[in-house]
Specification:
The chain is α/β, with parallel strands linked by helices. It contains eleven helices and 13 strands. Strands 8, 9, 10, 11, 12 and 13 form a six-stranded mixed beta sheet that branches. Strands 3-2-1-6-7 form a five-stranded parallel beta sheet, with helices on both faces. β1, α2 and β2 form a beta-alpha-beta unit.
């Protein structure tokens, strides 16, 4: 809990900050935003890829770009950003994804007159749509077009993977309990595009809960740990009954796909993670 030494409450503090912000003449109008707070790692990465790193004044603890954006202020955790820190930065644009835990923060910042924009990525094509929209919001339409051409070329390159049968893939988004990538997730699409067969691909929703019996019965030939909540790859084979899995017997258990987080749907997912996953699955083909 934040303790205030003065008699000014949080609501009054936020109102005063925003009043000063507007009186200073810095509010976003026809000019591109100069002070951006990004509350989603994927949006921060996309801004950096568009050459907008110097405009980012605030980001979250979970942001992958923190090491290269040393001047940006950390405004709390992704699931619970700090409203007062955000307002004190006097942003002319605040970016969210549609995570439900941020809904109240979005509502309150919008109520203070700050410009807020929300984005959602369900499919790989949404990454291109987000890139295009960010380019329009920030005056980087040309750069967004160039980046999207690269993304489209990469997607086309892997559109119809050649070769024999597709290996069965279990992608673990979380464990204890187990969650995987369902048919409504961009990760399912990534697996299929890279040449795999997602064992949870017939399950509804983006990240359905699955049990050990389901996984064992599906006998995945490749296991991918997302890195969010999956523990050590070496421990997977010690889970009860998992020693019988084809992926465990062949040693095809992978923690993440390179240095870029698999669960961050930015352009780097397509440019970096997709080729790595394709190489892994291609080596596992029968």
């Amino acid at each position: 809990m934040i303790r205030h030494k003065s008699a000014v409450g949080p609501a009054a503090f936020l109102a005063a900050v925003c009043l000063g912000f507007f009186l200073s003449g810095s509010a976003a109008g026809s000019e591109p935003p100069r002070r951006i707070v990004s509350l989603a790692p994927s949006l921060t990465e996309t801004l950096v890829d568009l050459g907008l790193g110097e405009r980012i004044v605030g980001l979250t603890e979970q942001d992958n770009c923190r090491p290269v954006l040393k001047k940006a202020v950390t405004v709390g955790f992704y699931i619970q950003p700090n409203l007062e820190k955000i307002a004190a930065l006097k942003p002319d644009l605040v970016l969210f994804d549609v995570y439900p835990g941020q809904a109240e923060t979005r509502r309150r910042l919008a109520g203070l007159g700050l410009k807020v924009e929300s984005f959602e990525v369900r499919r790989l094509s949404d990454i291109l749509a987000v890139t295009d929209r960010l380019g329009g919001l920030t005056g980087r339409i040309r750069e967004a077009g160039r980046l999207n051409r690269r993304l489209k070329a990469q997607l086309e390159r892997y559109r119809n993977p050649a070769g024999p049968g597709r290996p069965r893939v279990y992608l673990e988004v979380g464990h204890d309990p187990y969650f995987s990538a369902g048919r409504d997730s961009f990760l399912h699409e990534l697996i299929e595009l890279a040449g795999g067969r997602n064992i949870a691909g017939s399950l509804p929703g983006a990240y359905p809960r699955v049990d050990a019996e389901f996984i064992i019965a599906a006998d995945p030939e490749v296991i991918i740990l997302s890195g969010m909540d999956s523990g050590d790859a070496r421990a997977v084979g010690r889970r009860p009954g998992w020693d019988r899995l084809s992926a465990v017997r062949s040693g095809r258990i992978h923690s993440g796909l390179g240095t870029h987080p698999l669960t961050t749907p930015s352009p780097r997912l397509i440019l970096e993670n997709l080729p790595v996953l394709h190489r892994i699955l291609n080596s596992a083909r029968r």
